[in-house]
Write a structure and sequence with these properties.
Helix 1 (about 25-35) links the parallel strand 2 and strand 3 (about 40). This protein has helices at about 25-35, 70-80, 85-105, 140-150, 225-230, 265, 295-305, 320-325, 325-335, 390-410, 430-440, 450-460, 470-495, and strands spanning about 1-5, 10-20, 40, 60, 120, 130, 155-160, 165-170, 175-185, 190-200, 215, 235, 240-250, 255, 270-275, 310-315, 345-355, 355-360, 370-375, 380, 425, 445, 500-505, 515-520, 525-535. It has two domains: about 1-240 and about 355-410, 3-Layer(bba) Sandwich (FAD/NAD(P)-binding domain); about 245-350, Flavocytochrome C3, Chain A, domain 1 (Alpha-Beta Complex), CATH 3.90.700. Strands 2, 3, 7, 8, 9, 10 and 19 form a seven-stranded mixed β-sheet that branches. Strands 20-18-12-24-25 form a five-stranded mixed β-sheet, with helices on one face. Strands 13-17-16-15 form a four-stranded antiparallel β-sheet, with helices on one face. With about 550 residues, the protein is an alpha/beta fold. It starts with a strand and ends in a 9-residue tail after the last strand.
Length: about 550
């Protein structure tokens, strides 16, 4: 399968194509350049507009006194609810501290304590203070700034902005040897073109725009995951969508990206209350308001369902330096007339992070030769059924470096693309809103067989709304449709509740489901589902 699009009108090449300019893509590109290989970095908007820029929480790493990778591993495994691959977690937590040190060496500046040491805080699910922050709640922006500065100094990285990746190019052997893309602009590289490469790395970030409300920016339409599906790659764990429990409630008619109220606010003493002023998390989990995100999101959803309210409240009035500590959040609240120092903050869950994605090994290989994935686009197995807070930026740093090393060691000779994929798809952008509302209604925080079946029926109906007009909106809508279908199919198949997947009709966790669901589609669009046992073999991590 491939997207319906005009034939490429221009062509270029590089040793490696990296698609995405968040922490994962930038780190991978810089590490590849350390091996003197040429890189073309493709980004969908401006180079600094990815999800990394919006990350408020921070980066988790075992850098503090008394902390250790083993303790970080334990917290990650607990949050992952029995579905983490242990070798992937070992890699993440053991290589994490050095990855953060390398980021600091590249110029990232993190908040300091009064003694001049890096200030480490705590977030939900962590039993130690191990979260690095920058600018209080602007960690992602600082990480992005430092990495982009390093990229701008490297003449071996060509950046192409305002470019939507379309499909993978394959050689006669079935290996990915480049991509097609559409560049919005004027000049020699506008419209649809192709880039030939010896390896392709997908780092396109999340897929939050599958839902009506999300913390993700508008560019987060899961383009890399959809490309991989059309190329025949396996995706896994896609049913595990993490809904951030505390997103600023902007009103009934708000759509798209919503302001995030970072977990760090609760880490500083804020707590949740319902309409009756009751602190409801105290009776739900030993960590109360700092319980893992899935538990908090589910309880907020239950509170809203019981009362009919559109949101609950966050009481942050005890944080007297709120404006200085969380300037971005303070500004967002001020826009709707809320003063966090005096007022309760209205919050509700929204789509935040995809724990699943393109299934990869520990070096980022997908199931299709030549195609790598990293960051939120990938499923390394490190997050399991629920990502631990602030492990996402760390994952991009760690696995981006591993992919670069693997590419440098195993780079193949140039291969030429062959014509393939006679089946073309293109869904009308007119159905995008209905698709998002359907997913938010039937495949959200809490799901049932009935809600998921109705969602699939609606999706099946919407796929008939095709169009002949190839443009960015249609390409994005088609990508979102593929992802919505994969998420709903997996959620319907997993008849248990685990991590960030909750089935009201199967409320218990089942040992029989201690495995991950793979989804793939064949060349004519038929879906296939297989299962993979969770890996506890530590020898694979070495």
């Amino acid at each position: 399968m491939k997207l319906r699009a005009p034939l490429p009108g221009w062509s270029t090449s590089a040793d490696v194509v990296v698609i995405g300019s968040g922490v994962a893509g930038l780190t991978t590109a810089l590490q590849i350049r350390a091996h003197n290989l040429s890189v073309v970095l493709i980004t969908k908007s401006y180079v600094d507009e990815g999800s990394t820029k919006w990350a408020q929480g921070g980066i988790a790493a075992a850098l503090g006194p008394g902390d250790s990778p083993e303790q970080h591993e334990r917290d990650t495994l607990v949050a992952g609810a029995g579905l983490c691959d242990l070798p992937a977690v070992k890699v993440l937590v053991s290589e994490g501290p050095e990855a953060v040190r390398k980021l600091i060496a590249r110029g990232a500046v993190f908040d300091k304590s009064e003694t001049g040491e890096i200030a480490l805080t705590r977030e939900g699910g962590h039993l130690r203070n191990r979260i690095l922050h920058a600018g209080g709640d602007a960690t992602g922006a600082e990480v992005s700034r430092a990495l982009l500065a390093a990229v701008s100094r490297d003449q071996g990285i060509e950046v192409i902005e305002h470019a939507l990746v379309l499909d993978a190019l394959k050689s006669e052997s079935g290996r990915v040897c480049g991509v097609t893309l559409h560049v919005i602009g004027e000049g020699s590289r506008d419209g649809v073109g192709q880039i030939m490469a010896r390896a392709v790395v997908l780092a396109t970030g999340g897929l939050g725009q599958v839902y009506s409300q999300t913390t993700n920016p508008s560019v987060s339409t899961g383009d890399g995951v959809a490309l991989a599906l059309r190329a025949g790659a396996d995706v896994a764990d896609v049913e595990f969508i993490q809904f951030h429990p505390t997103v600023l409630y902007m009103g009934e008619n708000s759509r798209g990206q919503q302001p995030l109220i970072s977990e760090a606010v609760r880490g500083e003493g804020a707590f949740l209350v319902n309409d009756r002023g009751e602190r409801f998390m105290k009776s739900v989990h030993p960590l109360a308001d700092l319980a893992p995100r899935d538990i908090v999101a589910k309880e907020i959803s239950r509170q809203m369902s019981q009362s009919g309210a559109k949101h609950v409240w966050l009481d942050a009035k005890s944080i007297i330096d709120f404006k200085d500590r969380f300037p971005t959040i303070y500004a967002s609240c001020s826009q709707i007339g809320i003063d966090p120092i005096k007022d309760l903050i209205p919050v509700a869950p929204a789509s935040h992070y995809a724990s699943g994605g393109i299934r990869t090994d520990l070096n980022g290989h997908s199931s299709v030769p030549g195609l790598y994935a990293v960051g939120e686009t990938a499923c390394t197995g490190a997050h399991g059924a629920n990502r631990l807070a602030s492990n996402s930026l760390l994952e991009g740093l760690v696995f981006g470096a591993r992919i670069a090393e693997d590419i440098a060691k195993s780079l193949v000779t140039w291969e030429q693309p062959v014509a393939s994929d006679p089946i073309e798809v293109l869904i009308s952008p007119s159905v995008r809103g209905e698709m998002q509302r359907t997913m938010s209604r039937g495949a959200s925080v809490v799901r049932t067989k009935d809600s998921l079946t109705k969602t699939l029926e609606t999706l099946d109906r919407l796929k008939d709304a095709t169009t002949i007009y190839a443009n960015v909106d249609a390409w994005e809508t088609t990508n979102l449709y593929l992802l919505a279908t994969a998420i709903t199919r997996s959620a319907l198949e997993r008849t248990e509740s685990r991590g960030s997947h909750t089935r009201d009709d199967f409320p218990n966790t089942s040992d029989a489901w201690r495995k991950r669901i793979h989804q793939s589609i064949d060349e004519i669009g038929n879906w296939r589902s297989t299962h993979e046992e969770v890996c506890n073999d530590l020898s694979i991590a070495h």
